Amino acid sequence: MALNFITSPNVTEDRCRNYISKMFISTSSMIDAIFEQAQTDIIKAKFKKESKDIIIDLIEIKINNLLSKFEDIIFQFNYKYKQNLEVPFEIFSYKDKLEHLLKLQPTTTSNINMDNVD
Prior knowledge:
Helices cover 69% and strands 0% of the residues. By secondary structure, it is mainly alpha-helical. It has one domain (2-105).
């Protein structure tokens, strides 16, 4: 659908730019939602390394698929309007989020006597 929209002869450059902006926001939101779900899944898996690695691999695949679709839209826009529009993937900051997931560890319970707390 996205590529059909961009390549449609009836669509103006301004409408395409607006569409790309909405797709950027949508892609960012989806990436954030994927990471929130992954964190929940890692906690449910009790932070086991094998499970965590599988979840993180799946996340990378999902994000790369999203970003490649977004990249296709920008490529089509640049081709159609002879622009040099660039959106670096670093702006999504998903590498930092992956690092955070890799470092997730279960919280340790401490033996605090709550009767002694003021």
